[in-house]
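Much of what follows relies on a compact textual record of a protein's fold. With that in mind, consider the following protein and its fold in token form.
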Amino acid sequence: MLDPPRTGAGKDVCCAVAALSPRAIAYVACDPAALARDLATLTGQGYAVTRLRSFDAFPMTHHVECLALLEPAGGRIDRTGPTKIS
């Protein structure tokens, strides 16, 4: 689960999380622009957005909370490297 500050998680954190090969990543964001930047990084690491919701948690303001669920694109991601076949 990622719940970064308004500036987003950033490329380094997103890559580090993706390197752990989680079966899913729940990302909570309070800035849709930062969420978009981080989603671009995570999709580049082999994850796909499977669900996306926005919540007007603070009515009468411009603030919107977003929740994105990412899962490995095409199934489980194998980051152990190529397997040698003898």
Notes: Residues 81-86 have pLDDT under 50 and may be disordered. The chain has one domain: 11-72. Strands lie at 25-29, 47-55, 65-72. The first strand starts at residue 25 and ends at 29.
